[in-house]
Amino acid sequence: MNLDPESTALVAIHCQGDIIGAEGAFADFFHAEVVNRGIVGKLSGLLEGAREAGATVIYTQIAYNPDYSDLNANSPLLRIAQQRESLKHGSAHTNFIEQHAPQDTDLVLTNQRVGGFTPEMASILEDRGIQTLVFAGVATNISVESSARAASDHGFHVAIVEDACSAATPGAHAASIESLGLLASITTSSELGWAR
């Protein structure tokens, strides 16, 4: 893909210990496929390459008040977060895994919903002249897809780095990518040219 770094942002979706870590609250859902697909290494390379290219790097982080007063648990997944007492501000596993620690130039946007595309993100992107969003992270069929759909509906050009995303199962990942192919460009780390 030929992208203009000045108008492009790489959005790393929920690379937090609770979601992709071996000991996180959702490890039983996601960790096996994170390992099988080599997501940690691929995302690390993408993040480094995006910074070197001069693109904006954005991390989404889902986190709640310790008493969950800001959690609207209107879906099974969000109820699980509360039941497992996970994703609390200040908790070690709510933070990003060590390999994906944000740099000083990166943006970290916290959200309380499954999708990471928020009005705050839209405002920041528009202020910076960003026109294209490149998504990678976990889970393909949940937070990545939700964020990508919202970004597309908001008028941004969207790309999904297929080999830098994973879901709970290969089938769920594949079905999501197939659906997203109607809304976004589907690419790979090597095609994108940012992999390190």
UniProtKB/TrEMBL annotation:
<dbReference type="InterPro" id="IPR050272">
    <property type="entry name" value="Isochorismatase-like_hydrls"/>
</dbReference>
<feature type="domain" description="Isochorismatase-like">
    <location>
        <begin position="8"/>
        <end position="189"/>
    </location>
</feature>
<protein>
    <submittedName>
        <fullName>Nicotinamidase-related amidase</fullName>
    </submittedName>
</protein>
<keyword id="KW-0378">Hydrolase</keyword>
<dbReference type="Pfam" id="PF00857">
    <property type="entry name" value="Isochorismatase"/>
</dbReference>
<dbReference type="InterPro" id="IPR000868">
    <property type="entry name" value="Isochorismatase-like_dom"/>
</dbReference>
<dbReference type="InterPro" id="IPR036380">
    <property type="entry name" value="Isochorismatase-like_sf"/>
</dbReference>
